[in-house]
Design goal:
Distance between the termini: 38 Å
Structural class: alpha/beta
Strand content: 25-35%
CATH topology: Spore Coat Polysaccharide Biosynthesis Protein SpsA, Chain A
Helix content: 10-25%
Largest sheet: 7 strands, mixed
CATH class: Alpha Beta
Number of domains: 1
CATH superfamily: Spore Coat Polysaccharide Biosynthesis Protein SpsA, Chain A
Strand order of the largest sheet: 3-2-1-4-9-6-10
Radius of gyration: 17 Å
Number of helices: 6
């Protein structure tokens, strides 16, 4: 029995064409790993949970020891899903994660060196425990400072909840996160968001940025 479930979450804001590209990449990378999709609108991807507390509801539905969180605007590699945290008390983040800004000319990949939820592998019980503590302290949306409502193991001290440990890993093949006008983050930063220091026009397995960016178009 596989010990990992992929929790895929979507706000359903990306185009149908872009969704098909990222979904197909996810299904290829996942193989026989179970997928639970949590979305604002009904979706035909694994077992679908419509709306709910994004992440928390999916984690409770899973039964495996570990969970990988996935987003609808990220291209995943099979090697990403082979990693497991070193202990059951730590959140693991894949740092071989490259951003592709759809507005950049010429198109280029960059690594910003940030821990992000779309690259997290976590013990299921630890994830549920951490999310339930957050929701218990902030039961209403208006109580939440959105800039601190992010990655597990990164913002706990600002939220006043139990601090969780994190660790980093590097998958053999990178994963690619698209930064695009339909994303929620774009509404906050727009095209002011900066490229990472590490940059590349081509990545192993995925090919050249000028070709990959066409998946969004």
């Amino acid at each position: 029995m596989n010990d990992l479930t992929i929790i895929y979450y979507s706000a359903n804001t990306i185009s149908p064409q872009f969704y098909e590209h990222t979904k197909n990449a996810l299904l290829k990378a996942a193989g026989d790993i179970s997928i639970i999709s949590v979305s604002h609108k009904p979706m035909d991807l694994g077992k679908n949970i419509c709306v709910g507390d994004i992440g928390a509801s999916g984690a409770k539905e899973a039964t495996t020891e570990y969970i990988a969180t996935a987003e609808d605007d990220t291209l995943y590699s099979a090697s990403h899903f082979t990693h497991r945290p070193t202990t059951t008390g730590v959140f693991a983040y894949n740092m071989n994660k490259w951003s592709l800004f759809t507005w950049s000319e010429p198109p280029i990949f960059s690594n910003r060196g940030r821990r992000t939820l779309n690259a997290m592998i976590a013990p299921r019980k630890l994830l549920i425990e951490a999310l339930e503590e957050r929701f218990a302290k902030y039961p209403k949306d208006e109580m939440i400072q959105l800039r601190f409502w992010g990655e597990l193991g990164r913002y706990e001290k600002y939220l006043g909840v139990t601090v969780r440990e994190t660790e980093q890993f590097q998958s053999e093949i990178p994963i690619i996160m698209f930064n695009h006008p339909e994303s929620l983050n774009y509404k906050q930063q727009g095209e002011r968001k900066r490229l990472g220091i590490d940059r590349a026009f081509e990545l192993p397995y995925w090919g050249e940025a000028k070709d990959v960016v066409k998946l969004h178009q």
